[in-house]
Design brief:
Blueprint lengths: L4 E7 L3 H12 L1 H8 L2 E8 L17 E2 L3 H4 L6 E4 L5 H12 L3 E4 L2 H17 L4 E2 L10 H8 L4 E8 L2 H12 L4 H10 L8 H4 L2 H15 L9 E2 L7 H9 L2 E12 L2 E12 L11 E9 L2 E8 L3 H20 L27 E11 L4 H11 L4 E9 L4 E12 H12 L9 E5 L4
Parallel strand pairs: 1-2, 1-4, 2-3, 4-5, 5-6, 8-10, 10-16
Antiparallel strand pairs: 7-9, 7-11, 9-10, 11-12, 13-15, 13-16, 14-15
Length: about 425
């Protein structure tokens, strides 16, 4: 047996799986030349009867519809799980680990919910598990947090890590389209699913920032503790008013460490138009990491898709292969290591402090602003600026405010009272503002 040969089995032959198989086969010589490793794609399993894929030259005898034929094959060293979902994927991975197979996955949902269980099994069986493709496609942010920033105290992570919502908000900003039209265009181009809920309501980004937070701070971050808010209430008016104020609206995933606590949240955020993150357009992703001593660092690139994600998956296969050949498995991340995890308190969303944009539809008559300002003042909230905009209806106008930094709980309580006023004619729109980017 060639000591530099590693056999790979693939479970899931969809878009990303096809890309991975294409890279392993077409770049076989390049990988061997650069790494000295012979990566052999031994078997592909897909629950549908696999048929040949364009650009993938592989013998039909290596195709099966039974994942167990990959998991139980004694010749396979690395199992790559790309079926998505949770239950079946978890079962396949745990069986493969028990069988001594190293694992590569791009399954953010599985790891965000069951990372502790997966890595506990990996630790007990001395197995490598890599997951670069689970966050931000081809951007090597997982490797950066696991290795490149190992000596840094991470202070903050700000991420545009969902390409669907970034495309929608870019279209709304650049082409003055409304939310529904921009969403329909995203679906037509294949950037958004038929049911876009996971993307537009922030769930996808929440799963990703859960993984990044776990890696950054060495904690097992509970997904259910991530405050999550989507973009479906953002209107063209908000986009335009933000522009007039010098801001851009993005769906931002935020993880911060300060005063001994970690806060993790996903929500629409107004960013200064000069900031690097504000200028990330279309389906691209970007992650801004602040560490001590490194300072601010920016990662930018394709956040999803066949080519970007398959690049990340194959990079993981190569990393694990090096570990196999050197008899040195890749260590379990500290956040899921039974001996290394730490406990850091989480800051609830109500305790967070930030600035705010507030848009109201109010009756156009004297004294309205005084009523609203009075309620804000009662809750120790200070107005930075206020603009009365164009008419909304016959006797109503838009009122736009920028609010100085305030505690979330006080802001929410003030909004509840403001929305109860007779002069306020629709539910207020509140967007958090991050000025330091």
């Amino acid at each position: 047996m060639n000591k530099s040969k590693i056999n790979v089995g693939l479970i899931g032959w969809g878009t990303v799986g096809t890309g991975v198989s294409r890279v392993l086969i077409n770049n076989f010589d390049l990988i061997r030349q650069r790494t000295g490793i012979i990566l052999e794609l031994q078997k592909i399993a897909d629950r549908n009867v696999p048929t040949m894929r364009k650009g993938v030259n592989i013998e039909s005898s290596r195709l099966t519809k039974y994942p167990d034929e990959v998991i139980n094959d004694p010749n396979i060293d690395i199992v790559v799980e790309l079926i998505g979902g949770v239950d079946d994927a978890k079962d396949y991975i745990l069986k493969a680990i028990t069988n001594g197979k190293h694992i590569v996955t791009a399954n953010k949902t599985l790891l965000a919910k069951h990372g502790q269980e997966i890595f506990s099994a990996a630790y007990k069986n001395n197995i490598s598990v890599c997951f670069e493709g689970s966050v931000a496609g081809g951007i090597p942010i997982i490797k950066a947090l696991r290795e490149g920033f190992a000596a840094n105290q991470i202070q903050a992570i700000y991420g545009i890590i969902n390409g669907t919502t970034n495309y929608i908000l870019t279209q709304m900003s650049d082409n003055v389209t409304d939310y529904q039209q921009a969403l329909a265009e995203a679906q037509e181009k294949g950037y958004a699913e038929k049911d876009p809920t996971a993307d537009v309501e922030g769930d996808d980004a929440a799963q990703k920032i859960t993984l990044l937070t776990s890696l950054a701070y060495g904690i097992d971050m509970p997904l259910e503790n991530v405050y999550t808010e989507g973009i479906s209430r953002i209107t063209q008016k908000d986009i335009q008013y933000a522009k007039e104020l010098g801001y851009v609206i993005k769906l931002l995933a935020i993880s911060k460490f300060s005063e001994g606590k970690i806060e993790v949240r996903v929500h629409p955020t107004m960013l200064p138009e000069r900031s690097m993150l504000a200028n990330v357009s279309g389906v691209f992703n970007a992650i801004y990491v602040v560490g001590d001593p490194v300072g601010g660092t920016m990662f930018y690139g394709q956040g999803a898709g066949q080519q970007a994600t398959s690049s990340a998956v194959v990079a993981d296969i190569i990393d694990i292969s090096k570990g196999i050949l050197n008899n040195s498995p890749i260590p379990v991340p500290s956040c899921w290591h039974p001996d290394n995890t730490v406990s850091i308190p989480l800051r609830a969303i109500n305790e967070c402090q930030t600035r705010y944009y507030l848009r109201l539809i109010v009756v156009d008559k004297p004294g309205v602003l005084a009523q609203i300002a009075g309620i804000l003042g009662q809750h120790q909230i200070s107005i930075a600026s206020v603009i009365q905009k164009e008419q909304h209806g016959l006797n109503t106008v838009y009122l736009v405010m920028l609010i100085h930094e305030a505690i979330e709980a006080k802001m929410q309580e003030a909004i509840r009272h403001i929305d109860e006023l007779e002069v306020v004619k629709d539910k207020s729109m509140l967007i958090r503002v991050e000025n330091d980017l």
